[in-house]
Specification:
395 residues; single chain; 18% strand; 4-stranded mixed sheet; alpha+beta; globular; 5-stranded mixed sheet; YcaQ family DNA glycosylase; 15 strands; 16 helices
Length: 395
């Protein structure tokens, strides 16, 4: 029998589209004074998940996320904030993400699901023997990369993993092993019993409680969201979200122009979002915009990562970064670096009002990554290009 979701409760609060957008910006730490005392760990706790990705243009995405909220935090300090003092771990959330260590118990449902399934992508003849070797090495030698454990690949394509790599990734999936940092973009593995604080090292929460807490966390991080938005944040099944929504404390609201029911964080509704809007370039993997349907609904902005699109078919460039200014997405730029020059390989802007914010964002990004010059390579609107180059010279 197919289960049917119960109807959403009637909302008691109606929000305009603009109010919803501002709630979301404040929830994501992009409206109002940044909490500099809390720093990068505070950003991570607030968002609940920061996505990792292999692409590095200006910087890697997990560095760009706190930069967008706090400004030019030194990159080495960002890495230290994530990985020192046992503050975080890497696991499967929206994708591969840095997660606050406090969320370890909340992913017990996913670890159990992997155990029940018996594998992720790869199978080997004697998984238990391979896992035993990995456990023994980590126990004896401490945190190690897959290469240090004996090699990550068999020599073929990138997914042609060695038995050691398959075993250690399986132990990570099921919770015996933790990725405690990235070193040269390689995962560093340690035993969970050593890396996770004792008070958190348990899988006591049942599946429903794990999902309930993750949905509540997503609601707080999003400010206001549809069921699909809440499910997408930690990649949860919609039926599971439906089952726990009434117990999350999230408040049913109606948002003008949204076709689907929505829920808001009650704390977000207690005060009107005020303060300074951040002007910044956003990683395409930033949690403000990683959900493309939500981004279009919230900002009227259609965005697509074109890194895997053949170059002749790209519209905005390899790693186009949207420009956030005045609480709206008003342009995008595909950046690159040539020595000490930040190159705006392709720029598009929504009119003259976006020129000054784009120039400011480019100079701030250039300074952050150690560039002393900015050059515009392509902007198809001749007049906007002229204005942008003038603003960059004046900046």
């Amino acid at each position: 029998m197919t289960s049917v979701a119960a109807p959403a409760p009637l909302p008691t609060v109606t929000l305009s589209a603009d109010e919803a957008r501002r709630l979301a910006l404040r929830a994501q730490g992009l409206l109002g004074a940044p909490d500099r005392a809390a720093g990068v760990p505070g950003v991570l706790r607030r968002l609940g998940a920061v996505q990792l990705d292999t692409i590095s243009v200006l910087a890697r995405s997990h560095e760009l996320v706190p930069y967008a909220r706090l400004g030019a935090v030194p990159r080495e300090r960002v890495e230290a904030a994530y990985w020192s003092r046992g503050r975080a771990f890497e696991y499967w959330s929206h994708a591969a993400c840095v997660l606050p260590i406090e969320e370890w118990p909340l992913f017990a449902f996913r670890r159990r699901a992997y155990r029940e399934r018996g594998h992720r992508w790869h199978r080997i003849a004697d998984m238990e023997s391979a896992c035993r070797v990995v456990r023994d090495r980590l126990r004896a030698d401490g945190p190690l990369t897959a290469s240090e454990l004996g090699g990550a690949k068999n020599g073929g394509v990138w997914w042609d993993w060695s038995e050691t790599k398959i075993a250690v990734e399986w132990l990570l999936d099921t919770g015996e092993v933790v990725c405690t940092e990235r070193r040269g973009w390689k995962r560093v593995y340690d035993l969970a019993e050593r890396a996770v604080p004792a008070e958190l090292l348990h899988d006591e929460l049942d599946d429903a409680e794990c999902v309930r807490r993750l949905v509540a966390q997503a609601g707080a991080a999003l400010g206001v969201a549809t069921r699909a938005d809440l499910a997408d944040y930690h990649r949860l099944k919609a039926a599971r979200v439906d089952a726990v929504l009434p117990d999350t404390g999230l408040v049913p609201v109606a948002v003008e122009g949204w076709a689907k029911p929505a829920w808001a964080d009650p704390a977000a509704l207690e005060s009107t979002p005020r303060g300074r809007h951040r002007t910044t370039l956003l990683s395409p993997f930033d949690s403000l915009i990683w959900d493309r349907p939500r981004t279009e609904r919230m900002f009227g902005f259609t965005h697509r990562l074109e890194a895997y699109v053949p170059k002749p078919k790209r519209v905005h460039g390899y790693f186009a970064m949207p420009l956030l200014a005045g609480g709206r997405l008003v342009g995008r730029v595909d950046p690159g670096r040539e020595g000490a020059t930040l190159v705006a390989r392709q720029v598009s802007m929504d009119g003259r009002a976006a020129v000054e914010p784009m120039a400011r964002a480019l100079w701030e990004a250039a300074s952050w990554v150690g560039c002393s010059d900015v050059r515009v390579e392509r902007c198809d609107d001749v007049e906007l290009r002229r204005l942008l180059e003038g603003a960059l010279r004046d900046g």
